[in-house]
Automatic annotation (TrEMBL):
SUPFAM superfamilies in UniProt: Nucleotidylyl transferase
Keyword Nucleus: yes
Compositionally biased residues, Low complexity: 400-436
GO molecular function term, any single one: tyrosine-tRNA ligase activity
Protein name per Swiss-Prot or TrEMBL: Tyrosine--tRNA ligase
Organism: Lentinus tigrinus ALCF2SS1-6
Annotated keywords: Aminoacyl-tRNA synthetase, ATP-binding, Cytoplasm, Ligase, Nucleotide-binding, Nucleus, Protein biosynthesis
Cellular component aspect of the GO annotation: cytoplasm; nucleus
Catalytic activity from the UniProt record: tRNA(Tyr) + L-tyrosine + ATP = L-tyrosyl-tRNA(Tyr) + AMP + diphosphate + H(+)
Region ranges (Disordered): 371-442
A single BP term in Gene Ontology: tyrosyl-tRNA aminoacylation
Pfam families: tRNA-synt_1b (PF00579)
Main location: cytoplasm
Amino acid sequence: MAPSPDDTYQLITRQLQEVLGGDIIKAILAEGRTPKCYWGTAPTGRPHIGYFVPLTKIADFLRAGVEVTILLADVHAFLDNLKAPLELVAHRTQYYKKLLLAVFSSLGIPTSRLRFVEGSSYQLSKEYSLDNYKLCTLVSEHDAKKAGAEVVKQVDSPLLSGLLYPGMQALDEQYLGCDFQFGGVDQRKIFTFAELYLPRLGYAKRAHLMNPMVPGLGGGKMSSSDPNSKIDFLDPPEVVRKKIKNAFCEEGNAAENGVLAFVNAVLIPISELRIERLQGKTGADADEGASAIGDQTPFVIEGAPEGTVFSIQRKEEFGGSLHYKSFEELEADFVAKKVHPLDLKTAVAASINRLLDPIRAAFQQDEEWKNTEKLAYPDPNAKPEKKKKVKVYHPPPPGKGKNAKPADAAAPAPEGQAAPTAPTPDATASTAAPAAQEQSTS
């Protein structure tokens, strides 16, 4: 039995922090049409595990029958206050694509149902450029700067390139043909900017869906530019354990707790996704999980009660293992100090490594990806290789060199004459003696 439009809308919008223009999606579903969305990322710094939040949500979109486009915003990456120099953008774009494909496969999301588009494939066209110029005649410097405040790197003297960023992201909705754009709640100002200005160009207003942001390991936003706040997808297991061990996780304090927040935003949703898949609840996405890589079991230990979505394994002498059917239960126990931070950290580090194992393995098996990684993120501390001087042979001038013959010996005799011979030592002495006698008598 096909799900109702209301059920489909609920699936599309569940576990989101905010929805703008939900009526647009409801109207499309009521008409029996297929909604189209896009999610974009600018290939700048190395992606971190906070990306699991939007990438996991894309599974819900596919289950709801939504057509999903992944935008690799290479032009945006260059414009964002030169976070990525132009010569690196192409390599980083390919690195991102390789990584995203591996992450989707590790989540059991069929990549064949995703459309990947590079921004430069259409953002450099005549039509897009003209629309961008038209937008520039409508938008004030104040509005452009305000729209990008949470996304574009803020500096004392902003470059014009950063002011173009929000307008281009708005135009992408039209040129990618989407009904709604999906992104983090940090993009809200750009989304409201698009809702205001696209209709002024004669284009339709789109809906906007926002996922919550994962706090960094030390509190605040998890950021690619802060290595202490994040865990990279390719971090080795020991690095993951060390970063989680050093993360802020004060006993009884659930506020600004990056470890606890990661359970809520990533681990429990992935557990629920896998449990639903085991129950055959994949909706319109019949291929979900068919080509998955890595361990696809939920983060629940053997023997856990039915309905458990997250387990913390402990020895019996410390009270035995803990099982939770919701994040709210876990949070309440943590605040009541029934869960020790060390036990929580141990469980979270183990779960993250389970998530990253197939991605790290895919990287190690892909020589092209490894070469791309070196080009995209060259080691800033690497010493340039010293080029060995190549010896070039330069022939000596005529008559020089160890194998050269004396000039007079080498000269050929005129035709019809005998070649001159070098005087012998005796002949030289006999001619010199009379000359000496003549000089002494004079």
